Structures are given as C-alpha cells and as structure tokens.
Amino acid sequence: MLVGIVLAGGLSSRMGQDKALLEINGQTQLIRATNCLKDAGCDEIIVSRNSSGFIVDKFIQQGPVAGIHACLNHAAYDDALVIPIDMPLLSKTSLRTLINQGRRRDCACYFAHSVLPCYLNRLERVSLIAQQRLEHGQRSVRGLLEELGAAVIELFESHGESRELYNVNTPQQWAHACCLIDQKDYAWRE
Fold first, then answer.
1. How many CB atoms lie within 10 A of CB 11?
2. CA 117, CA 94: separation in Å to the nearest integer?
3. What pLDDT, on the 0 to 100 scale, is given for residue 190?
4. What's this model's pTM, rounded to 2 decimal places?
5. How far apart are CA 6 and CA 104, in angstroms?
6. Calculated CA dihedral for residues 79, 73, 71, 80, nearest 10 degrees
7. E strands within the chain?
8. Buried b vs exposed e over 62-71: b needs ≥16 C-beta within 10 Å?
C-alpha cells in the first residue's frame, strides 16, 4: 500500500502565518496537498502536523525527517510518497513519475532540484535510519536520502516541471507562486 505523507509541521515563522492554511481558489494548501497525493495514486494520506488530529512528531521541532519518522511509525505501509506543504505548484504527473521511477529502480528517489518530494520504500529500514539520525542530531533530509542510497531523478526543464519544485517560505514567495498559478494553471494539472 502506498501512503502519501504531507509534511505540515513547521512553524511557518518566515511566512508569518500557517502555510497549511494558505488558500488558492478557496482551498487550503493542506486540502490541495492531500488531493494531489490522492490523484497521484496514494492509497492513504497522513499528515505530519504538530496539532490535534494529526501525526505528531516524536522528535519535536527537528524538521522534516522527524515528520517522516513519525508518519512511518503510524502504521505499516509498503512505500511512501512524501511532499512538503510549501510546494503549491506540484503536479500529480510529476509525483507519479517519482513513484514509477522508485518502484522501477526498487529504491528511494527524489528530483535533482530538491530532496522533497521524495519516494521511499523499505519503510522499516527508513524509519530505523531516520530514528538513528535524529538521535544523533542529524536532521538533514538529503543526508537521510544519501544514506538510503536514493536515486536522483531529472525533471524536464522544457515542460516547466522545475517550477513545480518552487518552495514558498515568505509572503513574497507565496505571492509569486500565486501569480504563476494564475498565469499557467500549474497547480496540480493533468
């Protein structure tokens, strides 16, 4: 079973407001992210978000690796697709590419321009390595993926996919992402 994981546990301090609750066309980023994962083929969606009703990190304020670790310990899954809450331009097509490449290669993988989103397999091993890294203060997603021997997948620049990896952390970046969405309908296109 493929689980979709939304990492939405950050403090959003640079944004000045909760990134998960930012809206585009009347939908919050949290709803948009869960819908994107469903459309990409995930059987179940779980959210790392340090608040009631969501998966709470065991390693508090230790970043995305802590969110991944908490979600993987929530239940047993075959593989996982992990996306951050702050990439509003991601598409189900690119996420499906990531899943297909990871399954074909039988390994974790991520896009060349960004360690998130990422595809993970052999989840018991991932959870164990993530826990060991967190216990030693190693919070880097890149470090985790390197230790897993993850493959790097290229996106094709000519189709605009590299924009899908645009990460928003400030109000200015959010405004820019909204303009891109308005101009090209990048947000979770077919």
1. 10
2. 10
3. 38
4. 0.92
5. 23
6. 0
7. 2-7, 23-24, 27-28, 44-48, 79-84, 109-111, 114-121, 151-153
8. bbbbbbbbbb
Is residue 187 pLDDT above 80, yes or no? no
DSSP calls for 130-146: HHHHHHTT---HHHHHH
Tokens 């990492």 sit on residue:
7
CB 177 within 8 A of CB 168: yes
Angle between helices 123-135 and 64-72 (to 10 degrees): 140
Pairing verdict, β 44-48 and 23-24 = unpaired
pLDDT band at 39 (very low <50, low <70, confident <90, very high): very high
In the structure encoding, which two tokens stand for residue 100, read together? 């297909």
Residue 78 has pLDDT above 50, yes or no: yes
Q: Which of 94, 108, 102, 82 is nearest to 163 (CA)?
A: 94
What b-and-e string marks burial along 17-27, b requiring 16 or more CB atoms within 10 Å of the CB?
A: ebbbebebeee
Structure tokens at 154: 């290229």
Place of tokens 């997948």: 153
| CA-based nearest residue to 115, from 87, 93, 86, 145 | 145
Q: Pick from 84, 82, 87: which is nearest to 24 by CA?
A: 87
